[in-house]
């Protein structure tokens, strides 16, 4: 079991498993991520109607909203990032918000790309390795340049992580462009764990609702073993840029993905972020009435 001290402002998401299940939370060293470091789990795996606009400076954005245009002109602050987070009501079903999302990790994502077995150009190995490392370290968009916040939810054996953060504009654009290349560069490759075990990784493009200023979605499937039993981790990744800020939604687990939930998180999360940047308070959802 790997333990890593706090390392960054956001966390990757994997399947939430019951006691004795297949995935583990792991840790690695670096900068503090959110409000907590990495934590370990018990098993080992081989391998986020609108309020009226106001010209008064918002405590969330730190700037005044324009009553005439309503355009997002604020700077994301720590309190604004927290206000932009989604809640259980935003994604409904039976998702439960957790307090330890910053500690989530999955050992199936730890591995070294087998360059010799790479199906695409061998020069793409560095990008595939970067993808694996970024998934585990939650650095798909690089290090935030400003405020950030995260929250996580569990439902049965699935997890959903929602992150919002401010980034350097140029670097954010570069990260989004890099993500767009991965379904070609890393369509399928093999990763080797510390014990010599092999995992097959597949990357395909995944649709994202047409919201925000730019967006990119991926689906990553990692097939490995736990003991002698085959296991497959499937993750849905959705990134949406709003100005120089972005939200990242990561969901999935050993039983596949939750497409409808991911879509709801992206749509509501983007709306929340736009509201905060415009100096408005995100509208509370009515919750699950089922």
From TrEMBL:
Stretch list, region Disordered: 51-76
Biased composition (Polar residues): 55-71
Superkingdom classification of source: Bacteria
Keyword Signal belongs to the record: yes
Keyword list, A-Z: Signal
UniProt signal peptide: 1-26
Protein name: Lipoprotein
